[in-house]
Amino acid sequence: MALKIVKGSIDRMFDKNLQDLVRGIRNHKEDEAKYISTCIDEIKQELKQDNIAVKANAVCKLTYLQMLGYDVSWAAFNIVEVMSSSKFTYKRIGYLAASQCFHEGTDVIMLTTNQIRKDLSSPNQYDTGVALTGLSCFVTPDLARDLANDIMTLMSHTKPYIRKKAVLIMYKVFLKYPESLRPAFPRLKEKLEDPDPGVQSAAVNVICELARRNPKNYLSLAPLFFKLMTSSTNNWVLIKIIKLFGALTPLEPRLGKKLIEPLTNLIHSTSAMSLLYECVNTVIAVLISLSSGMPNHSASIQLCVQKLRILIEDSDQNLKYLGLLAMSKILKTHPKSVQSHKDLILQCLDDKDESIRLRALDLLYGMVSKKNLMEIVKKLMLHVDKAEGTTYRDELLTKIIDICSQNNYQYITNFEWYISILVELTRLEGTRHGHLIASQMLDVAIRVKAIRGFAVAQMAMLLDNAHLLTGNTQRNGICEVLYAAAWICGEFSEHLEDPMHTLEAMLRPKVATLPGHIQAVYVQNAAKLFATVLRKQEGAPDSQAAQETSQLLIDRLPLFVQSANLEVQERASCILQLVKYIQKLQQKDVEVAEEVSALFAGELNPVAPKAQKKVPVPEGLDLDAWINDPPSESESEDEKPKAVFAKEEPKHTRPRHPEVDEKELARRREARKQEQANNPFYIKSSPSSQKVYQDAPGVEHIPVVQIDLSVPLKVPGMPMSDQYVKLEEERRQKERAEKKKKEKKKKREKRGRGKKGDSGPESEEDITPAHQVDIVTEEMPENALPSDDDDKDPNDPHKALDIDLDKPLMDSEKLPVRTHRPEVLKSPAEDGDGEPAQAEPKKRSSKEKKEKKKDKDKDRKKSKEEKKKKKHKRDAEPEEPVEEQMEEPVQSEASAEVAAPPTSTPTEEVEPTPPETTSTPETTSAAAPESEPEEPKDTEPEETKSSKHKKKKQKKEKEDKEKKKKKRHHHHHHHSDGAGDESVQNGTVEEEEPLPPMSNYCLLAENSYIKMVCDIQGNLQDGSQVVVSVIFENKSDCFLKSMEFNVLDSLNSKLQRPEGAGPHDGLTVPFQLPPGVSNEARFVFSVQSIVMPQKLKGTLTFIVKSEDSSTHEKLDFKLHFTCTSYLITTPCYSDAYAKLLESGDLKASSLKLEGVNMPFHHLLARICFHHHFSVVERIDSCASMYSRSIQGHHVCLLVKTSGETVSIDAKCDEPSLLGNVLEEIKQTFSRC
Amino acid sequence: MIKAILIFNNHGKPRLSKFYEHYSEDTEQQIIRETFHLVSKRDENVCNFLEGGLLIGGSDNKLIYRHYATLYFVFCVDSSESELGILDLIQVFVETLDKCFENVCELDLIFHVDKVHNILAEMVMGGMVLETNMNEIITQIDAQNKMEKSEAGIAGAPARAVSAVKNMNLPEMPRNINIGDISIKVPNLPSFK
User: Fold this and answer.
1) Domain with B27 in it: what CATH number?
2) Model pLDDT for residues A976-1004, shown as the tens digit of each residue
3) N or C: which end of chain A has fewer CB within 10 A?
C-alpha cells in the first residue's frame, strides 16, 4: 500500500502540472488550440487513473482551461471524485473546479449532496469552509433543500470563520429554497449581534440583500439596525446599513425623520468618503420620502448639495462622478437647490471623462426651464459639433431631444426654434438616431398645429436637399428623417408654398436609392401632393398645367413600379393607374381635383401607445371563451375537405351576433356621444377639441404674437436655430414692455390662472409661448382604465422571497432534516441468541453447509416473528404514527437486513479473550472529535421530513434512490479517495422503476432508555481499520449523560483507544442526549484478518438523569463485523476488470438464489448498497460487479438472472473471504 | 451583489475570471472581451466606474475597475454595492496578493491562478463580500497553505523538487515574451477604514 503511494507520487512528478500547462500554452502561441487539444487528451488519460493526486492535478488544469473558454463539463464526474478526496489539498481543487463550472443543469450535482454534508460537518474548519465557498457558487434548489438545515446549524458554529461563511451562504439558500427563509430567519437575526465583526457584517450583508428586494418585510428590524448604525464602527457594515435604510424609508416616513439626525452627524464627522457618500444618498432618499419642502429639512438638503458640490469639485474623477450621480437624485424632488449649481454641471460637460459628461447630461435634463432651455441646448449643440464621430455624440443627440420633448414639450416656448434644432441635427453624419429625429418631427408637426406651416416649409427644404442627407453614406440612419419630411409635406400640403416644386423633388430618380419604407412614403405622399397641386391648378386659368402635372407622375412613377420592395411597388402601381385615369378625365375637361383630394381627406390624431391595452373589456364579453366550439378531433378530419367547396359556410356563424334593429343602434350611438361629451379625457374631433382647449380658463389670455416668419424663411439653405435665441430675447423684452402696460388690467386674471408650469420657477409664468401651442394630447379609448400597474417582471426570483417574517413559525415550516431510517427493533434477548463461538474457523465452511438449510428455515421464522413484533410495537407506540406509516416499506426491508447478520454466521463468533490482550492500542481514536459537529443535525423532530417526503414521494423517488446511493458513498469517501460513483457512471443501476429506500444501519441493541443502530465501514487509507458509526437515540423522557462505550477486544479486532488509556477502558461518547434526541458517534477498530466475520461483545454504560433521580444503566450489545463491511465500493473500468479476470490469480465460487422476485436493477442496487459493490458492466439480465477489500483483495461477481433464479459466479483472491461474502449476499436475498 | 470578478491584462488575456452567476463558456469569453474593450479604451485619469449594464444582465449593474501595471481588475456589481467600497475592496485584494506572492507581478497570476482563486474565496463568497480585513484574510490563507504542506509531507517532497527544477527556467520566460515591467505597483491609497 505504502509502496503504491510512493509510486503514485513519483508518477505524478512527470505529469504535466498547471504551471507546465501554462508554460506550454505560452510557448505555443501559433498553434495554441492544437496544443490545448493535445493537453485535453492527456488530461482525459490522467482522469482515468486511480491515483487521486493525478486526478486532482488534471482537474486543476481543467479549471484553467475553463477560464480560457473551453467547455469542461464532460469532466464533471471527475470533479466530484476530486471533491470527495479526504485530503484538503485535493478537496479544494475539486471544489474550485466545481464552483467554476457547475450550474443548475449539471446532473452530477445531485451526487454531491452527501459529500457536501459530510464536509460541512468535518472537524477541519477549512474543509467546511471550502465546501461552503464551493456550494455558494453552484447551489441548486435540491441542494438548498437538503442542506438548509446543516448550514443553519453551522451558523452557530464555534468558529467565527465558519459562522460568517454559513451566514453568507444562507442568502443563496433562500433564493433557491424560499421555504427556508422563515425557519432560518430568527437565527440570522441573532447573528446581527454576533460578537465577531465578520459574522455581523455577513448577517448585515444578507439581510440587506433580502430587504432590498422586499423591504416591507424587514421594517421590523429597523430599531435593531438603528442601534447598529449608532454603535458600529465598521465602515462596511455602516455602509450596508445606511444603504438598507435608504430602501426602507420610502415605506415608513417616521423612520426617515429619525434618521436625519444621526446621518447628518455622520456626514459631519466621517472622514471616509465612501461612508459620506452613502450617508448623503440615504439622506436624499429620506428627503424624497418625506413630503418635500418642509422647512426644517431645507438645511439637510443644503448640506447634501454642499457636500456633493465638494465631491464634484474634487480632482478625483470617481468622487466627481458619484457627486453628479447623487445630485441627479436630489434633482427629482428639489430641482431648485440643484439648479443653482448649473455652472458646475455645465463645466462637467467639458470633462475629458465620458462617464462624467454623461452624468452631467442626465442632470441637465432635470435642470432645464423655459428660461434656460435655449441656452442649454445651444451649449449642447456646440458639444455635438465637437464630438464628431463618437457614440458620445449620439448620446448628446438623444439627450437634446429628451430635454426638449420632456413633459409634452413643457419647456419649449418657440417651436420654430425646435424645428430648426431638429433640422440642424439632421446634418450630423453617421448618427444612428435618424429615426428619433424623424419621430420628433412628425410628433411636433402633428400635435402643434400652429407650427405646421413652418414645419412644412422646412421639410420641403429638406426634401429639396435630400442629396445632402443621403450623401455618400447610403447606410447612415439619418435618411430616416426624409420619411418624416415626405409625410409632413404630403399630409399638410396645403401649407406648401410651391407644392409643384416639392412634388418634383419627391419624384427624382435618386429617391429610388432610399430604403424601401421611405420610398413607399414618398410615393404615397406624392399622391397627396398631386391632389393639392391639382386643386390649385384647376382653379387657375391655365388648365394645361394640371395635365402636365399628371404627365409628370406618369413619367416618373414607373421607376417605382419596378421597385423590388413590395410596398413601394404596390402603391406605385395603384397610384399610377389612378393618375392615368385622372389624365383621361382631364383630357375630357372634367374637373377631378375635388374628388382626388377627397381620397386624402380627414385628419389623424395621435393615439397613445397604451390606448389599445386600456380599452376596458365590455361587460359580458369573455375573451377566452370560444366563439365557435372547437371541432373535435375526429370531426375536423371530416370537415376539412368539405370546407374547400362550401364557401358559404361562414354564414352560419353570423346569427350568433345579436340582431339589433336600427332604432336600438341609434339610441346607443346617442348614449355614447353623450358619454363622450361628459368625459374630460376623450378628445373630440379637431374643431371641437380646439374649442375645448380655448375654453380652458386663462388660456385665451395668452397673447398670440405673430412672428415675422419672413426672416428665418428667406435664409437660403438650412435654417439656423441660433437666430431664435436672439429673436426670443427680443420678443420677451417686447412682451415685458407690453405687459407692463397691461399689468394693472391683468393682475386679477393672473391670480385666477391655474398653475401650468408648476415645477419651473415662478418667473416662468411670465414667459409666454411664441405660438398658441395647441399640443394635441394622445387619444385614449373611452373608459380607459387609469391604472398603470403593467410593468412588473413576473420572473423575478426575489418575488418568492416576499415572505412575512414576523409571523410565528409553524411546525410544518421547519427545515427538512436528514434522518436515519428507523430500524426494526430487535430485543436484546433475541440479539443475544448467537451460538457459542467456534474456536477454529477452518471448520466453518463444512459446518455451515450443514446448517444452511436450518438457517433458511430459521430466517423465515424469524421474519415472521419480526413482523408480528412490529405490529405490536406500532400499537404500543402511537407517538410516531406518521413515521411508521410512511416508512413501512423501509422497515420490512430493513428488518430483513437486521435479521440477517446474526443468522448468517452464527458459528464464527470470535470468543472475546480479554485477559490475553495486553498490548495497548497505539493511535488515538479519531472517533470522538469527528462526531461532534454532527450533533445538532438530528435534533430536529423527524416528522417534518417524513411528512414532506410523503407529499413529494412520488416525484422524489428517483432522487431518493440517488441519495441513498450517495449515502452509501458518503461513508466510503471518508476513507477512500478513489471511490467514486461508478454505478452511476456506468449507468447500469439507473432504471425507470424506483428503488425502495435502503439503509445499512442495523440495530445494535436497545432497551427502554436508548437505542443504538450502527453501520460498519472499512477504511481504505489504512488496511487494518474499520470505522463503526453508531447512532444513539434517546427513547426516554430523561436526560442521558456520561455515556461510555466499551468493547471487549479480541485477538483479531481491537477498539482504538486514546493514548494512555488501558486496554479495558471505555470510550466516552462525546455528547449527551436530551430526551428524544439522537446523535452519531464513530469508533475506530483495528483488525488483523478480514477473511472472516466476527463478533465483539460490548457494553454501553450511561447515567439516566430524570428530574428527581439519576440512575446508572448499562446496555450490552454485540458488534458484528461482517465480511461485507471490509469491502469498499471501488470503481473499476471494464478493461481493467477483464484483465483482472484473465490473470487467473482468482479463485472461483458460485451461488444460486431461488425465488428472488424483484427487478434486476433492484437486485443490483441491493448488492451495490448492502455489499459495497459497483457495477462494471451490465448487459440485459447479466451484470459484472466489482469490489475491493480494505486489504486490497479483489472481489468480482457475475450476476445472472432468469425468472426467479439468480446465479452469482464469483472470483476472489481470497477464497474464504469470498465464501463469506457470498453467504452474506445470500442472507440479504433470502429475506426478499 | 458582485456579479463577476475579472482580471485580464493590457491585451485582454484573462488571468482570472469568477462569475457568480452561470454563463456558458462562450458567453463568459464574450463578456471578458467586451469588458476589456470598454475598459481598455479609457484613459488613465478618468473615473473607475462604467455603466456597462448590458454585459451582465440589467441596467442596475456597474463595472468598477482598477488598473495596476499590466493588469485590469474589474468587478461587475449591482446597485447594492457601494462604489467606493468596491474600489477599496479591489485595493485590499491587490495588497493581499502582494503580500501572499511577495511583490506580485502578472507572472504570479499567470502561473498560480488557483492560488489567486483561493485568496479571492476568502474575500468574496457567492458574490457577497466576506472579509475586508487583510490580516484576517492572510491568516486564513497561511493556515490553509500550512495544511496543504503538511498533507503533502514526504510524498510531496519529490514532486516539489521536480517543480523547483522546472521553475528554474522560469526567469527566462519574461524575456522571451517581453512583458516588460510586470511588477504590480501597489500605490498607497487613502485607506477606507
Assistant:
1) 3.30.450.60
2) 444 434 333 443 344 445 556 667 777 88
3) N
